[in-house]
Amino acid sequence: MSYLLQFPPDETHVSVARKFAALAARELGASDDQCTDVELAVSEATTNAMRAHRRTKSPEALTMVVSKTDAQVCEISVYDRGAGLSDGQDGGSGVLADSGRAASVMSAVTDECDMIQRSGTRVRLRFKVT
């Protein structure tokens, strides 16, 4: 089973994405404590995705997929179409530092977290559930 949410790259939708992910994770077996962690990690992931969209002025919606794998893992993927940054490309704005802090937070509250940059970024957050 999986759940899909598409939403505009606007900060007013972070709370909707956070609650959607927590409710979907609960349906897929996440505990109350895990749902709190889901909310925090999704908040960080969606905020970073929105910043990427703002830098490129992309009008495309962000996409979040919440699903349960065969390995009893709740997986949440947040996709954006904004341009990723490499070292030195943020013009001193601190975007990379903020992204680094977000990655640290996401890694601390998930069982596994990774980011893949291609034509945008996919952040994958994984939580072991029963």
Please name the fourth-level CATH homologous superfamily: Histidine kinase-like ATPase, C-terminal domain
Q: Give the tally of structural domains.
A: 1
| H and E string | EHHEEHEE
Distance between the termini: 14 Å
The fold-level CATH name is Heat Shock Protein 90
Largest sheet descriptor: 5 strands, antiparallel
Structural class: alpha+beta
Shape: globular
Oligomer: single chain
Percent in helix:
40-55%
Query: Would you report the number of β strands?
Result: 5
Number of helices: 3
Tell me the strand order in the biggest sheet.
1-2-3-5-4
Second rung of CATH, namely the architecture: 2-Layer Sandwich
CATH class: Alpha Beta
Low-pLDDT segments, ≥5 res:
86-98
Average pLDDT number: 86
Relative strand content:
25-35%
Radius of gyration: 14 Å
Account of the protein in words:
By secondary structure, the chain is of the alpha+beta class. It has one domain: Heat Shock Protein 90 (2-Layer Sandwich), CATH 3.30.565. The chain contains 3 helices and 5 strands, in the order βααββαββ. It has helices at 14-27, 32-56, 95-109, and strands at 2-7, 62-68, 73-80, 112-118, 120-128. The chain has a 5-stranded antiparallel sheet, covered by helices on one side. β2 (62-68) and β3 (73-80) form a beta hairpin. α1 runs antiparallel to α2 (32-56) and α2 (32-56) packs antiparallel against α3. The protein starts with a strand and ends with a strand. 32% of the residues are buried.
